[in-house]
Specification:
Length: 90
């Protein structure tokens, strides 16, 4: 990359890194408003579905927005047991 192009990239106009995108924030706010306004209707909508599998699938997909999925964590390392598990019996 030329020095001139690097200078242009460092001084480019636009939103700063890490700042939220206004369009995305507006869409999320609209979805939140729609969900809040229709909380009471959710049970009726789910009860109108005949298939238990479809009903459960829609319910689980909807609660993802309320209870976020946990990220998987891998724990590595050696475990050392220094305490006797049965020491309380002595």
């Amino acid at each position: 990359m030329s020095d001139n192009k690097q200078l242009q990239n460092n001084k480019s106009p636009g939103r700063p890194k890490g700042s939220p995108n206004k369009a995305t924030a507006d869409v999320r706010a609209a979805i939140a408003a729609f969900a809040s306004a229709n909380v009471e209707n959710m049970g009726d909508w789910l009860n109108a579905i005949d298939s238990p599998e479809k009903k459960l699938d829609l319910f689980l997909r909807a609660i993802e927005y309320h209870i976020p999925k946990l990220a998987r964590q891998d724990i590595t390392g050696e475990i050392k047991h220094e305490h006797n598990i049965y020491s309380w019996m002595e």
